[in-house]
Design brief:
Elements (H helix, E strand, L loop, with lengths): L4 H8 L17 E7 L2 E8 L7 H15 L6 E7 L16 E8 L7 H14 L4 E5 L7 H5 L16 E3 L2 E5 L15 H13 L6 E7 L6 H9 L4 E6 L3 H16 L4 E6 L4 E2 L6 E2 L6 H9 L3 E4 L4 H8 L4 H4 L4 H18 L18
Parallel strand pairs: 2-3, 4-8, 4-9, 5-7, 5-8, 9-10, 10-13
Antiparallel strand pairs: 1-2, 6-7, 11-12
Helix pairs in contact: 3-11, 5-6
């Protein structure tokens, strides 16, 4: 039985991408379909980084086509990922070298926001993306410790700073600039806001697919300035199941909505506690709060993480969970969250500004 390219496309309309829940044709992932005799070659280009599941998707596509195309000979699918820039707030200047900015925020402190931010960045990198992290928690910078990076950043031209690298991701933090771990950051709001913007725009980010910004907790000056001056693709809210934490998380979510920053979803941290001695699992901060908040505000629960001593120990030692135990159960949860974040970003409207020519008016 002979078939043509249209038959291949029709067959792939019946196959759903397990990560996006859309068929591969609707997701615009099918590229370069070639039929030679009874042999078929094609590319599957995903809009999100998913290195860990490329082989799984390749097997899925090839098996489906063998069933859908009776008499087919050799079927070869090549799977890859390509991350493109997506739309941000109107009128905000883009950042050179950065395609997408993901803000990680929390309504209150102590919910594990910085730990979530660094493991999210490392998980995106593990899936094949080029990733950076900006520590915008000006008053309590923790990313240098978590990444095990110290020392001041270099500047090749005296104007732009070179990002420091830790575990394969680019990083910048006010913590690189201050002397001593116990030096207090006694700054008023405008000073902190200006420092955050300088760190963002005076760092020579190198071709990042994603820049993760670890925000200070709350809904104050820095968060509002970020929404007004930083081109944010979307925000991830971190909370615990505790009622008071959820109350503050809702305030953070509403703040981003009011300033036209899209909400990617919610991460519920410390969801359960598993006893390190007996293995008993207990919802010590309550259960189901994150899921209920997502249902109330029409957003997605990206994932739930346990209260586990290893997460704290690994971050404190400068080698967060995704770096120190990449194949462990907790790292798998972080990677699932990262993939959901990337898929949600990929589904957003694309930024086409680069397609338009720049018009320069000058006197001659």
């Amino acid at each position: 039985m002979s078939f043509v390219e249209a038959d291949v496309q029709a067959a792939l309309k019946q196959l759903t991408d397990p990560n996006t829940k859309r068929d591969f044709v609707a997701g615009k992932s099918v590229k370069n379909v070639k039929v030679s005799g009874n042999d078929v070659t094609l590319d599957i280009q995903l809009g999100y980084p998913a290195k860990s599941v490329w082989s799984e998707i390749k097997t899925l596509v090839e098996a489906h086509l063998r069933t859908a195309l009776p008499g087919a000979g050799k079927i070869e699918a090549t799977v890859s990922s390509k991350v493109v820039p997506h739309a941000v707030q109107r009128g905000v200047k883009l950042v050179d070298g950065v395609k997408n900015i993901i803000a990680v925020a929390s309504g209150k402190g102590g919910v594990g926001k910085s730990t979530t931010a660094v493991n999210l960045a490392l998980a995106l990198a593990a899936e094949g993306a080029r990733v950076g992290i900006l520590d915008a928690d000006i008053y309590g910078p923790s990313q240098p410790t978590m990444l095990g990076v110290s020392g001041q950043p270099d500047s090749l031209d005296g104007k732009m700073m070179e990002p420091r690298e830790g575990h394969g991701i680019q990083s910048m933090s006010i913590g690189f600039m201050i002397q001593g771990d116990d030096a207090p950051m006694i700054w008023r709001g405008p000073m902190a806001t200006q420092a955050m913007e300088q760190l963002l725009r005076q760092t020579r980010w190198d071709n990042l697919d994603y820049l993760v910004i670890d925000l200070p907790p709350g809904t104050g000056d820095i968060q509002l300035s970020l929404a007004q001056k930083v081109p944010v693709t979307g925000a991830v809210i971190v909370t615990t199941p505790q009622d008071i934490a959820l109350l503050d998380a809702k305030k953070g979510l509403k703040m981003f909505e009011k300033v036209d920053v899209k909400i990617i979803g919610l991460v519920e941290n410390m969801s359960t506690h598993i006893c390190s001695k007996c293995g008993h699992e207990e919802h010590i901060f309550g259960a189901g709060g994150g899921a209920k908040m997502c249902a109330d505000y029409n957003t997605e629960l990206l994932g739930s993480l346990p209260l586990d001593i290893r997460i704290r120990e690994q971050a404190d030692s400068g080698s967060p969970t995704v770096a120190s135990d990449p194949d462990g159960d907790i790292a798998k949860v972080y990677k699932q969250i990262a993939r959901r974040v990337a898929v949600r970003v990929a589904e957003m409207a694309q930024d086409h500004s680069a397609a338009f020519p720049k018009i320069v008016v000058q006197n001659t």
